TrEMBL record:
UniProt xrefs under NCBIfam families: PRK11669.1
Stored InterPro entries: Beta-lactam/transpept-like, Peptidase_S11, Peptidase_S11_N
Protein's recorded name: Murein-DD-endopeptidase
Residue numbers annotated as active site: S71 (acyl-ester intermediate), K74 (proton acceptor), S128
Domain of life according to the entry: Bacteria
Upper lineage: Bacteria, Pseudomonadati, Pseudomonadota, Gammaproteobacteria, Enterobacterales
A Gene Ontology molecular function term of the record: serine-type D-Ala-D-Ala carboxypeptidase activity
Binding site for substrate: K235
Signal peptide: 1-27
Domain Peptidase S11 D-alanyl-D-alanine carboxypeptidase A N-terminal, residue spans: 38-265
Organism, scientific name: Sodalis ligni
PANTHER family: D-ALANYL-D-ALANINE CARBOXYPEPTIDASE, D-ALANYL-D-ALANINE ENDOPEPTIDASE
Record's keyword terms, sorted: Cell shape, Cell wall biogenesis/degradation, Hydrolase, Peptidoglycan synthesis, Signal
Family (UniProt): Belongs to the peptidase S11 family.
Length: 320
């Protein structure tokens, strides 16, 4: 098996973010990829893989490309909620009146009904429920505008300098980031154990009140149901412009790994890329990418001015 120790160590080359030394939650990811023997080809438009034990870079492709991130935004939403230290058992109402992006967007959750902040956060992370995410922002100290400001302040504090949020759900194309920035968010997420618990929950039966009703919810990442994956945190995302997106913290080869894949082609392509990444890290090989997915990737690259040559350099210096 391919060893995780065959990577470039950051050592003293870690840079600083702002003033002072970098803490674990603000750790920089190396810009030098691991010297693996065979190039990895994935379907997603950009990606990054990091050893979460010491923040070593294992793989990168277009990692600094700024793109819409869809519901991956909800991971920052959750962190801002937890940073506020509000009572998790407090009953709050479903409120979306300051989130115009939700106009006309279907949801089974009824505006005005109530549920605990804990369960609202669970639905936002596990099932990517947009009204739940918006409601959390509406019940933040200082209100909705203060919540959005806190999202951007947190991003800056983590060194996510190419990230910007305008709302808490990810429906807006103006919620943007990069694979590298999102890897910093994954590093920070280790300090929030509740994120792991909630985001990897398989399913729940949510009980609302005023009026009373019950709804079933399932995890949007089907990999959490597979025993061969040890997923510690996950968030999925999709819009037409963002494509299918995925962030995960998991364990591969007995090592903690963080992975980010953005702008994948099909409904399951981001999950297939996660499997390709795992196979590549374990064996140095991965399954081929379907032609349709590669065509989509090339088309999006042409639209954004990203060339195949740049993509190859980002991976490991070897052309496809």
């Amino acid at each position: 098996m391919l060893s995780f120790f065959r990577v470039v160590c950051l050592g003293l080359s870690l840079c600083t973010l702002g003033n002072g030394l970098i803490g674990d939650a603000e750790a920089a990811v190396s810009t030098e990829p691991a010297p693996l023997t065979s190039p990895l080809v994935i379907a997603s438009g950009s990606a990054i893989v990091v050893d979460m034990a010491d923040n070593r870079l294992l793989y990168a492709a277009n990692a600094d490309k700024v793109v819409p991130i869809a519901s991956l935004s909800k991971l920052m939403t959750a962190i801002v909620v937890l940073d506020a230290h509000q009572p998790m058992d407090e009953i709050i109402s479903v409120d979306i009146h300051q989130t115009p992006e939700l106009k006309g967007v279907f949801s089974r959750v009824r505006v005005g009904s109530e549920i605990s902040r804990h369960d609202m956060l669970l639905l936002a992370l596990m099932s990517s429920e947009n009204r739940a995410a918006a409601s959390l922002a509406h019940h933040y100290p200082g209100g909705y505008p203060a919540f959005i400001a806190a999202m951007n302040a947190k991003a800056r504090s983590l060194g996510m300098l190419n990230t910007h949020y305008v709302e808490p759900t990810g429906l807006s194309v103006n919620n943007v980031s990069t694979a590298r920035d999102l890897s910093k968010l994954l590093i920070a997420s280790k300090n929030y154990p509740m994120l792991s618990e909630l985001s990897t929950t398989h399913e729940t039966m949510a009980k609302f009140q005023n009026p009373p009703y019950t709804l079933p919810f399932r995890n949007t990442n089907h990999l959490v149901y597979r025993p061969d994956w040890a997923i510690q945190l996950t968030k999925t995302g999709f819009t037409n412009l963002a494509g299918h997106c995925l962030v995960m913290r998991t364990v591969i080869n007995h090592r903690p790994v963080g992975l980010v894949v953005l702008d994948a082609f099909g409904k399951y392509t981001h999950f297939a890329d996660a499997n390709r990444i795992r196979s590549w890290l374990e064996t140095g090989k991965s399954s081929p990418v379907p032609p349709a997915a590669l065509d989509y990737k090339k088309q999006k690259a042409r639209q954004s001015g990203v060339t195949a040559q740049n993509n190859s350099r980002d991976q490991n210096g070897i052309a496809d």
